[in-house]
Every structure is written in C-alpha cells, then in structure tokens.
Amino acid sequence: MSRTLKIILAANLIVIAILAFVYPNLMVGPGKLIPGHKQLETDCFACHAPLLGAASDRCIFCHKPADIGRLTTTGRAIAKPLASTPFHQKLITKDCVACHSDHAGVKRFRQQGRFNHALLQKKELDQCQTCHKAPADSLHRQITGNCGQCHNQNKWTPATFDHGKYFELDRDHNASCITCHTGNNYSRYTCYGCHEHTPSSIRREHIEEGIRDYDNCVECHRGADEHDIRGGHGEGGGNREGRGGREEDDD
Amino acid sequence: MTTSLWRQHILPFTLLVGLLAAVTLAGDYLLHRMNLVWVGRYLGIPGTLLIIASLIYSLRKRKYIKAGNPKTLLTLHEFGTWIGASLVLIHAGIHFNAILPWLATAAMGVNAVSGMVGKLLLDRSRRHVQEQREHFQLRGLSRPDTEQAIFWDAVTIDAMTRWRKVHIPIFIVFAVLALGHIISIFLFWGWI
Hints:
The complex is a heterodimer.
Chain A: H1 3-22, H2 24-27, E1 48-49, E2 53-54, H3 56-62, H4 104-107, H5 138-141, H6 177-180, H7 199-208
Antiparallel strand pairs in A: 1-2
Chain B: H1 3-33, H2 37-42, H3 44-54, H4 56-61, H5 70-92, H6 99-138, H7 143-149, H8 151-164, H9 167-188
Helix pairs in contact in B: 1-5, 1-6, 3-5, 5-6, 6-8, 6-9
C-alpha cells in the first residue's frame, strides 16, 4: 500500500472518528429520539450508563414515578393523560426500558403497545377496566369486570370462552364467529344461511316431529349431531313463540 | 471484449455477487415475514466472527503463521467471508439509522466484491487472454494485430487488477469502522 494511500485512509478515519464524537446521534445513534427527548439527542449519557445501556435510574431522575401520568417533568399538571388512570405508581419494579424505547431504530425491534402485566401489583391485576375500555359490541356491553373469565393478560385474543358449553364448534361447524353471530352481536346467533339450514326446511322437519317452537336451535341441539337432542322439549315439541335467535346467557 | 470472457468469467462473478444480494434480501424478507426481526439484530455477531476467522488465510499468506494448508485456508477464507458478509448484510437490513455502521457495511461490500474479483475473474481472465494471444499468434497474426484483437480484454484485466488492489486498504477501513460500531454498541447497549 502506498504511503499516500495510507495517509488518505488515516485522514478519513480520523475525520469519521471526530464526527462520531461531535454528532453521535447521527453517527452511532439508532434513529431519532421521541419528540419529548429531542433536546437530549447529542447527550447520549443522559440516558445511557457506559457499558450498561439505558438505565432506569436516569429516567427516574427526570420522571418521578409518583408523578407519571399526573405531572410533567417540569411539574405542570397533565391535561390529557395517555392512560385514564395513572398506573406507574402501581408497578412492582421501576424497569422503564422493559416497556419504553426511545430511538426510532430500536422501536422496530420492540413489540409496541405490549405491557407485561406481571409488572403490576397483584391487587391491581383484576382491575382491567381502570386502564382498558371494554369493546363496544353488544356482548361486552352487558359485562362489567371479571375479564379474566374469558381473556388472559398476555393476549386479548384468543379469548378462552368455552363455546362448547352452548354449542360445540365441531368439524361440521368450524366457522368464523360472524357466520352465526352477524352484526357484531355475539349475544344472538342464527343457524340460517348455511347448507340445509333454510327457514322452510327447518320448519318442515320440526313440524313433522310436532315441534312448533324451534327458533332457539341450541336449546335442543348442542352440536352437529341432529340425533343428540337435549333440552326441555326434544320430542314432545315446544310451544313457545319463536324469536329467531336467543340470548346466550339464557342457558 | 469476447463473448467467451463474458460468459466464462464475468457472468459467474456477476451471479456470485447477485447471489449475495439475493440471500440478503431473502433473509431480511423471511425475518420480517416470520416476525423474527430481532434475530437480525444478533446476526452481526456470527457474521463478524466468521470474517475474523477467515483472516487466518491472510495471516498464513503473509507467513505470520506457519501451520495450515494455504489452499484449504483460501477456500475457508472465501466461504467464511461470503457467508459472514451475507449475515452482516442481513443484520444491516434495509434500515438506515446511524451513519457509522452503514459506512462499515459499504466498506464490507466493496471488500467482498474486490475479493470475488480476485477469486473469480483475475487469474482466470489472465489465463484466458494469454490463451487468446497464443491462439492468434498461431493463426499467423502479427504481434500488433494480436494486441489489437485482445485490446478490450486487456483493458478489462487492467481495470480488475486496480480493483483488486483495493482489497487490503478497504479491509482496513472496514475493520476500523466495524470496530467503531462494535465499541459504540458495547458502550451504549445494556448487555446484562
């Protein structure tokens, strides 16, 4: 390698090294910081401890846990808090980076909007409604609290609702929810609209058996087996007025 | 340039470089598709280790070490650096954040290409041009006519020779930039 080339290479590397110290945010920073931390962009060690990464105690230096969700870092009241109830005070540990990331490039590797509920104090774990808003569909509108009956704290879906208690979703009924529960209304269902389940054929078959009240299908039929008939008036024939569906909590 | 020089030498070289790009794009795509983007974050480590390990050939070539069959070590150098470079390229992904690691990636890319020039093109092309020269002379062409006939091939080889000279200096640039990137990661990232 010629002497001139060596000098050019060394000069370039020195310039790059200087740039790394003058503009660390551009040279080594993994993307922009969140807008609220813009003034810290060239001061890496405001958040990072050398060789240890971003340290929570440095976050807490500005963001006092008791004030999070209530007051800004300058002590002003927060007009529109992000969460309906301040919950940072109810965390069992002050591990800020477990949930928060600052650089745009790092956020890409983090699952956004995921919160490990194990970080909450035990008595707060079943108070879902203080942070979460219930879905607006008619099923959830009827329910208050006790979310853990169907949902777990890792994922909202799939819910662990035991559909088999009402109707078994076997291989003949391996359908999506909206096939039977139309209009985002899970408190009602319809069996009509699938293969032989037309109003006329269902009417004909039930009238032949002397059954007049056959609109609430799952009252007698809990699965695809048409001979496995349960319920109050399996053979004798019901005589209630039809409703074209049923409330699931009737069962 | 004769068709045969293109087909026998330039095309395989282009395919090898293209394969490196294709492997990088496919790896990046699969990681995104399988929701395993975080894995790419760590592929820089095995990639760098493979490149470092493949430097044994360079040490052997310059007689800093005496053990090892140079031919085997060269093969390991070629495979190690190619696989290492593809892992580092997947690690870099298509995300543009800090400038320093991207300079290191660019230097590595130039270095890999210059290495492949040496492997695939230079020696074989020299042989090819020499064969052409002998072939034309056997057919009774005068020396100036022979040189005229192989003019563009000779120009291509001259360009490739210059390109290969970049291999060592650009490796030094790559090594320094990569070291800067690694130091910055250790300095700012929480490993424990």
